[in-house]
UniProtKB/TrEMBL annotation:
Catalytic activity: [thioredoxin]-dithiol + NADP(+) = [thioredoxin]-disulfide + NADPH + H(+)
Naturally occurring in which organism (per UniProt): Streptomyces ramulosus
SUPFAM superfamilies: FAD/NAD(P)-binding domain
Domain of life: Bacteria
Keyword Endoplasmic reticulum annotated: no
Protein name: NAD(P)/FAD-dependent oxidoreductase
TM ranges: none
Domain FAD/NAD(P)-binding as annotated: residue spans: 20-294
Organismal lineage: Bacteria, Bacillati, Actinomycetota, Actinomycetes, Kitasatosporales
Keyword set, alphabetical order: Flavoprotein, Oxidoreductase
Length: 326
């Protein structure tokens, strides 16, 4: 009988059989991909899912080979089904605290013991306080040109300047449309900004933004404080990324000058035994990137566990040999 989908059925016994090898916190692309590799490595893994993915408002994901145009929800459903085949436990819940050791406490009191931790809790997009922005988010108010600009190519596009990177945002979007308008809003443009925008064919609509104009559930334009409405079919905005890194902060993980948790190339944080992957440590990571980060973390986690297992086995072997000689 083929037991390839019955993890640990023939695996070597371990002193850690009563605990999870890895508890993965977060069931997005990073967390699920890590769990997939660890499950295939016959590790005892639990994934804790709070059920609030960052890309829930998006209808489709892009830039992921073989998954182009798939809905984010479908990708996650497929991922859950795949890791289930390898015996990975999925727990619906919210982690409130991680104690060194590692004890993972969920809301409601459930506590899991883990040898290693992978935090893949993502981030939230803090949107500007402009009427209409929250309602159109993920529809015709977009963020990443490489994720969504192709779908609105050759249409009249707006860039809302709520972030210092808005000028660069507008210049990038010229690759997809000849009709791009930058709305400076409260951002002061430098002489260099204006020169680059003019040279690259990006128009500027001066004045503060009052609201997004919507009709029949479609964006129609951007209304300025003086009453002017500039017709637009889609708009781009740069939200402020806020990582869900409270658990990492509580553990004392080191952060960089910008306030983001620091990891090595595998996702290992400054705290031994704790890895992090995906948007919680890299706000630029797309879905495919986050999945790759989860994969890299899983390889490193398994090798770290293997080294510990070997050390334990050698220690046990030496004790047994010493006892036999007595």
């Amino acid at each position: 009988m083929n037991d390839q989908h019955t993890p640990r059925a023939k695996a070597r016994g371990s002193a850690f059989d009563d605990v999870h090898d890895v508890v993965v916190i977060g069931a997005g692309a990073a967390g699920l991909n890590a769990a997939l590799l660890l499950g295939r490595a016959r590790r005892k893994v639990a994934v804790i899912d709070a059920g609030a993915p960052r890309n829930a408002p998006a209808a489709h994901l892009h830039g992921f080979l073989s998954r182009e145009g798939m809905s984010p929800a479908t990708l996650l459903d497929l991922g859950r089904a795949e890791i289930d085949r390898y015996g990975v436990q999925i727990i619906q819940g919210l982690v409130e605290e991680i104690h060194h050791g590692y004890f993972v406490r969920l809301a409601g009191g459930v506590v899991l013991k883990a040898r290693r931790i992978l935090v893949a809790t993502g981030l939230r997009d803090e949107l500007p306080d402009i009427p209409g922005v929250r309602e159109r988010w993920g529809k015709d108010l977009l963020h990443c040109p490489y994720c969504h600009a192709y779908e609105v190519r050759d249409q009249p596009l707006a860039v809302l300047s709520t972030h210092p990177g808005a000028v660069h945002h507008a210049l990038i979007l010229r690759q997809w449309s000849d009709d791009v308008v930058l709305f400076p809003h409260t951002l002061s443009l430098t002489a260099q900004d204006r020169e680059q925008l003019a040279a690259y064919g990006v128009r500027i609509a001066e004045g503060e933004i009052k609201q997004l104009v919507v009709d029949d559930d479609r964006l129609r334009g951007i209304e300025l404080a003086d009453g002017r409405v500039v017709p637009r079919a889609a708009a781009f905005v740069f939200p402020r990324p806020v990582p869900h890194d409270d658990l990492l902060t509580q553990l004392g993980c080191e952060k960089d000058a910008n306030g983001w948790v620091v990891t090595d190339r595998t996702g290992l944080t400054s705290v031994s035994g704790v890895w992090a992957a995906g948007n919680v440590v890299d706000h630029h990571a797309q879905v495919v990137t986050a999945a790759g980060m989860g994969s890299a973390a899983a390889f490193a986690l398994d090798l770290d566990l293997l080294n510990e297992d070997i050390d334990r086995a050698v220690e046990h072997h030496r004790r047994a040999a010493a006892d036999a000689d007595r």
